Amino acid sequence: MLRAGAHGCMLKSDAGRELVSAIEALTRGKPFFTSKVAGILLSRQVGHAWSSDTIDFAGPHLSAREREVIQLLAEGKSNKEVATLLNLSVKTVQTHRANIMRKLNLHSLGQLIHYAIRNGIIAC
To answer: Residue ranges per domain, the chain?
Structure first.
């Protein structure tokens, strides 16, 4: 699918919840894959289990908005810049960031960037 040029993918079961987010991301030139599809692609790409000293990359599913926030933060944007780009308040971005860190059991921006690279959210 990726070799054929797909920039996004979602399961029919996800379409109701994430269709608008997918369209918005793709119109901005950003790739969009639901967490279920990303998990499938990642498991096929990796083909092995993560070692116990790495972050749990197959962890909880993130919403489309959380993935957007991760992408922008991992690209070096500040909370204020993320808020402006996503048309959110800074407080909302801070809440998303805290929820992401909690869900993924991350404790630093470095770990968040590592997660983003490993999961194809950003390229290094």
So the answer is: 8-118
Longest dimension (CA), the chain: 40
Q: From residue 123, how far is each of 21, 31, 106, 113, 116 by CA, in Å?
A: 21, 12, 19, 10, 8
Exposure on the CB side of residue 47, measured as CA atoms within 13 A: 1
CATH number assigned to the domain covering 8-118: 1.10.10.10
Q: How many CB atoms lie within 10 A of CB 41?
A: 16
β-pair type (32-33, 8-9): parallel
pLDDT tens digit string along 20-63?
Answer: 888 888 888 888 777 777 766 666 655 544 433 334 444 467 88
Angle (nearest 5°) at CA 112 between 114 and 45: 45
Q: And the tokens for 114? A: 């590592």
Which SS3 state, helix, strand or coil, does residue 83 take? helix
| DSSP string for 93-104 | HHHHHHHHHHHH
